[in-house]
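Dear colleague,

Following up on yesterday's call, I've attached the two folding results inline so they're easy to grep. Please treat them as preliminary; we haven't cross-checked anything against experimental data yet. The first protein's sequence and structure tokens come first.
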Amino acid sequence: MKRLLVIVAVLLSCALGSGAEKKHSYLFAWCGDIEKKSSDFLAVIDAEPSSPTYGKVLRTAPTGVAGTQPHHTEIEMPVGGFLMANGFESGQTWVYDLRNPLAPKVVTSFGEIDGYMHPHTYFRLKNGNVLATFQYRGGHGAKSDGGGIVEINNAGKMIRSGSAMDAAAKSELIRPYSIELLPNVDRLVSTNTAMHYKSDGATRTVQVWQLSNLKVLRTLVLPPGPRGNEQEFPGEPRLLDDGKTVLVHTFACGLYAMKDIASDNPSIKFVHAFPGDDCGVPIRVGHWWLQTIPETHSLTVFDISDPEHPLEVSRVTLDESQKPHWISMDPSGTRIVLNSDEKGPDHRLFIINFDKATGAVKLDERFRDAGSSRPGVSMNGKTWPHGFKDDAYAHGTVFSR
């Protein structure tokens, strides 16, 4: 009888499993025309390895506006199916409905909110709203005030806002860039990097906020590293599994550890320098730090079990025409999409397989254009589904859920 019950349970499990619909995997790539003449657009690319059209562009959804500089989307596809993407130079954000991946559509767009201008990073909250960093307020010139953080809903309507200006840091350039939350201690960490750095100047600060009321508590200047400029252009903060330590990378290729963030005296310490002085976006998975490094044309993985002593464990090196910049992880934590910076000569998307147990990374050679001898999906010379035919580039790109 016991054996019969086991067999019935197994058969029932198989029956339920066979009836469950396996979700197809797609990439949503936020793209622009290199010549800035044709509309910016979101491209839907087949990312299902078993699919006969793996790597093919299946759909596009143009905004109807050209030359906005498609830049950041949310770092991963939100659960609700709506994705925010900015055209940074225009100061606009488009909200895409991607609940049906093969019928992508723009549902709304927004610009200035409460005087805050030029949004950059979107951080999705558990309640479905978004915390967005805005670089300016009241103007967007080199002498304009720094912006702040605004909580918005999917319609782009403001819930609340907070200024990043700090009377105790009047000599520092404030240009909110990215954020990380420490909800257990009612704190938020933001970084400052000016997208218009050539006119605005260099930045070197991170800020600690009270999360519940969006008020700046401290503005901290990053100390220099051995090279002298590693503290410039603070980029992405990432909370570690201990819930209290934040690692902050800089686009000048420094890595810093923040501690005691909930105290009156948070600390920040230089811990590592990556090769070169122009590094791209990182992600953290467990005790692995995955860093895009244009200098070595690579995605490099570091073991950060000891956050103050990162150790390289693996890397994928691309050809010299590639300048890796943006990366995003798929929901399983085993695949990474990586783009090549739009300033490089070859605009291409890659998929990289990631082993969470060992930190090993390996280029997916199968993800490529049909008939191509090179891995990766090229953004150049395509005829896109909405009729555009020319070279494009992809910036923010995420996997579907």
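Below is the second protein, in the same order (sequence, then structure):
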Amino acid sequence: MYKKTILGNGVRVITETMPAFRSASIGIWADVGSAAEQRAQRGVSHLVEHMLFKGTTTRSAREIAETMDRIGGNLNAFTDKETTCYYARTIDTHVPLAMDVLSDMFLRSTFDPHELAKEQNVVLEEIKMYEDTPDELIHDLFIQTMWSGANLGDPTIGFEETVTRLTSDDLRAHMRRHYAPNSVLVAAAGNVDHDQIVALASAQFRDFSGTCALPDAESPMTIPDTFVRRKDSEQAHLVLGVGGLSVRDERRYVLSIIDTILGGGMSSRLFQEIREKRGLVYSVYTFQAGYRGAGLFGVYAGTSPEHVQPCVDLIAEQFELLREHRVSDDELHLAKEHIKGSITLSLESTSSRMIRLGRNEFALGRHVTPEEIEERIDAVSAEDVRSLAAELLGDERVGLCVLGPLDEAAVAWRSSAA
């Protein structure tokens, strides 16, 4: 039930119809994120996202909020390193109104300086919130360490000094540089009619014209390092990882299997070894950070300071086992079924489907069906897993970041005790 239409001005309209649902999710996407920003303006994409909720030429910020509240809908947005998305979720009969509100915000926001000053303070509070959320902050520190000096390495939210310098003119200039028909798409999923979404988009974007330079996919050099930041807390938080794969790399399906085997669930190797057998952590998991030109693969664990080194050594042991030994047929089958089941469950959300539509169009230029994903997962062999693990998980490629009440001398990758 996937359809795609390109409007006369170049705006793409993509829909996935799910007739069994009463809800619909609609998103307006821009092909720009923090990786396309000038370093002195780090955080401008995220601040633009905030300001689009603060009033247009036809609606105040309160009227935007009340319009969606009256129909029981949700209005939100997100900015990441490569894209920005403004989206609404509502029941199917209110799709035209949701589309009207979203396009009004997208095309006619005023960037009032008084509202901007208030919203800059809001973003500064958001930065402080991350500083007080160590299990979130450690991921930013890991990316900054592994991709030091790269745009992909810096936090999307920006820094206090860059956010506070931005003006309304800076935000308008950013939109002129990066928001144009060739960099914008409308995605909708749920109980939607493709022709209706095309008609609504055609009407709302009829005066939207021009072109812009599309961002290049950044491929930063990965520099493994050990970084420890002292912070008074009960737990220490660590991320240990390596350079991974881009979302355009066909081996990403193999990496998903590795991800699942190592730390993708309660039966995963790291969960069983570190939590179940030894009780060293409450939370331990693996993750992928994949972008168009680069990627990272890592392990997160939160533990007591005295248990940091034992956790690091156990992770090193599991990396080595996966590099050196073939996974069993049973473990490989379990990982495949886990991934396929997770995909199926995620597809029961109209928001998840809408987000998949936008991400795949920008990153891959096409729709990737669940059936294709399942076929590619099923095709992964035990030798594929061992080969990629040997390539990615070598000791010389590992970086380590720790946040907590300990000094750098207290932890090392591959300690003498390992």
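For the second protein, one point worth flagging: The two ends are 53 Å apart (CA to CA).

Best wishes,
A.L.
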